[in-house]
Amino acid sequence: MSEALKGTVLLVDDDPAVAKVLGALLAQAGLTTYAAKDGEEALAHLERKPVDVVVSDVRMPGMDGMRLLTEISRNWPDVPVILLTAHGTVPLAVEAMKAGAADFVLKPFDREEILFTIRKALLRAHGEESLESLRTPSAFVGGSRRMQEVQGLLAKAAAGMATVLLRGESGTGKELAAKAVHDGSPRRAGPFVKLHCAALPDTLLESELFGYEKGAFTGAATRKPGRVELAHGGTLFLDEIGDISPTVQVKLLRVIQERELERLGGTQTLKVDVRFVAATHQPLEDLVKQGRFREDLFYRLNVVPLWLPSLRERPEDIEPLARHFLDAHAKTNAKPPFTLTDEGLAVLQAQPWPGNVRQLQNFLERLVVLADGQTLTGEDVMRELARQPGLTSPVSPASQAAIATSEPGGQASSSESGRTLESQRKDMERQAMVDALKRAGDNRTLAARLLGISRRTLYNKLEEHGLL
Questions:
Q1: What is the pLDDT of residues 173-222, one digit of tens each?
Q2: Which residues share a beta bridge with 192?
Q3: Phi-psi region of 197 (alpha: psi -120 to 50; beta: other; left: phi over 0)
Q4: What is the longest distance spanned by two Cα atoms in the chain?
Q5: What residue ranges define each of the domains in the chain, with the CATH number in brackets?
Q6: Does this model's pTM top 0.70?
Q7: Residue 467: how many CB atoms within 10 A of its CB?
Q8: Where is composition skewed (Polar residues) in this entry (predicted)?
Q9: Using the 8-state DSSP alphabet, how is residue 82 labeled?
């Protein structure tokens, strides 16, 4: 989250381990939490002490989450209730929303998803809910022409119901853009469900997407709905759609075309009402030509294509982004505000940031944590850059000026002037990966972490530069 949350949350779950883990997560985000093991204990707590939000499991002995929701809606109508369950079904989700639930989240929950959901509920409880206030603007900070165009297109896309395909490099904010599409759409009251396609092998991806029936395979002890079902009435965000296998592509195409599916091991055809938003950093057109991605699926996804620019394409946004992240990380780490000098900013602006906004954000968080004072100079920035092999060799603005004027007439040498910015960028990117792999002892997972990018992105870049 971009800033610490404030408020009180009552956690209701008969599993003390879940309450403990979730409580620690919310406490880290700045929230005060209380725990109750069942619905009766939760109601007794509400009688004694008010809370801002209730987060409750659905399946509990005695009074379950649905009955608890009914009681809270009747006696404390201003307290939003978020329901958690590992056994969610579309009818139950719809029933919960109709009964007044603020949201419905499936276990195991994603950290950022649950924090965003609770933040939204807190804003609603405090009477501050609006589309603009709900959005975490980190990736969209800055007033560059490119980002103004992107935000305008996102607003137009959100108002309709068409499938949206978000394109752009890793770290440019595609997930944030997908959430903005959902929040600005007529489906904003429905669920926003996301799935990172590259993070799962084919077998797991298929079951996560479409769900499965009891006994569909070894270990399938109960029926489980897929993400498509859980997004009924809302939006399903499929990140890294270019990584799905041909088998999954065929099944996904049917869902998008027919709005129906069958769970693994099942024979019943289920109708679903879902808006699809997909994202990829890969050139899908090339994958189509290579026979690795279905052409018909590409056209189904590419109804409203939106390109998110890299940070290199909007360098004027580095300053507002840097100051935004410094303020946010200072609050998160309970530190006073930081001041970034002009030289420090110039050093940041001289970097290529191959990991885009995400890499800049992670770098500034390390800078905040390791800083000795509250004023960040060019030397402070360069000192931390020297520890990061994923970035270019730190050179101060003064040194850059000296280099620029070392040639006759203050011009760069003819050999340099003949090289395009893109070719120089690729050289720096390649060297950054070589340095990271060397420092990581050729461990690609660690190298990706050092570079501030995903392992999948690293593999794609290694292949692009002939380093595999």
A1: 898 899 989 988 988 888 888 888 987 887 788 888 998 888 877 777 77
A2: 235
A3: alpha
A4: 84
A5: 8-129 (3.40.50.2300), 138-307 (3.40.50.300), 313-405 (1.10.8.60), 423-468 (1.10.10.60)
A6: no
A7: 13
A8: 390-403, 411-421
A9: E
